[in-house]
Amino acid sequence: MGLKTAILAVIFAFLWSSVGVIRYLRFESASHDLGLFTNVMWNLTNGHGHISSILNGINLFLDHQDPILWIIAPLFKIFPSPITLLILQGSSLALAGPALYFVARQYLGSRHWFIYMLPLLYWNYLLIRNANAFEFHPIKFLPFFFLWGIAGAQSQSHTKRVLGIISLLLCLTVKESVGPLLVALSLAWLLGAGPKSSRAFTKRLSLYLIPLSITVFIFNLFIIPKIIGGEYRHFSAYDHIGGTLYDILLYPLTNPMGFFEQVFTMNRLKFLIWLLAPLSFIPLINWRGALVSLPPLLMLFLQNWDNRFRPEFYYGIEPCLGLFYAFPLAVLSIEKFMLKWKIKKAVLAGLIIIGTVVFGSHSEIYRFSLYQTLQHHSWLKKHLVPSVNPSSTLSTTAHLAPSFSTRYWIKNIPDLKTQSGYVDCIIHDSALNNWPIKKLKDQKKFISNLSNLGYSLIYSCDSVRIFKKENIADNACLLYQPKCIDYSTPFHWTTSTEGYEEGGKNK
Question: What is the pTM of this model?
Fold first, then answer.
């Protein structure tokens, strides 16, 4: 691998990890998903099982099949913090880039200009960068395992092929939906998409990978939930077309008009633009490689949750990987055409650069400036968070939840329920994002009703109020009274117990 590519990978690993960590330290992260997965990891490493209190204490295998969390559990046990997950996520996403150097080299040779450009396109790809910046999710380990798996499997080295196969198998540990992606990759290999030097091997590997991936996919959706005693939660996303795997597979045949109307909506077409335009639509030139993107794209487009097509989320990860795999294959095809018509290679390079620049957005350095550093944030970290009893059950403002998620039970306001009643303590900060209670008047209504539920105010400072359930110990919520520093945060509490007043600017 080129030394410059390796150095860039380390730099991007640092930058991408820093984006996630700084976002968390500035209280921009929320209960979904950083708080959720931090809580799962804490419960898993402290003997409480693979459960999430944010999802009402269900076994997370009913929500996602992500045994990768068990693999990283020993590290989390040593460093039990959301920061651990964010560093692992940012590093793994960035370190997937060099794998594309090897993949491109396998098709184009060691001296081709594009082998150095492809990792740069990956690091500048907006949907990948947005995915890194948005919370934490196990699916973000997929690019590392998938791309390095391809690079290893397509190698001529026996050792690298073994490592590649292991990496491809690890893809199945990040999410239940990865099985169809590996099936599509295997079909592409069977159709001759592999490099000439390893085409025979990748075809043989596909004959094993296809049945294995289908088996794991079925096992994840039906057998594991049945063993646990529940049902796979995300079938509800397909209720409008029947909600069963059989209905989903036959939907294009049983209702072709409905299928067309479902897939070709404006928000889905916009999502396709964000998926393809940064790559100048070039991967589509090679249909065998682009085929790899089809199953994850269809699984996403057939869902009835339209908010998933916003580019700031992470739902573009699975479909974009097939496009990056297809890219060097497409470049190879285009260059043959250009050679025939005596078109300069600079034209292709210019077209690629235009796409990535126009749809690349701001750098990670710019992202840092978006996360404001407020004195209130420093006070929360230094004074409030350490003072809260780690054994208490809590419901907090959504953007406070990750900071309190290393405990058995954490919820975000307005949900106050535990498996046997109500949480011990409530921490509300009107200066932070209180999703899903967005309006100030609704937050006031929620707070005013707490006394009817048996909660009393035990602490008030600036925009923060803490409530304790009656008839529990005085130190159940706070180990000690945190030092109060009033920074006149916007919408800080008045001395009245009834409501807010708009504060001044942060000092």
Answer: 0.94
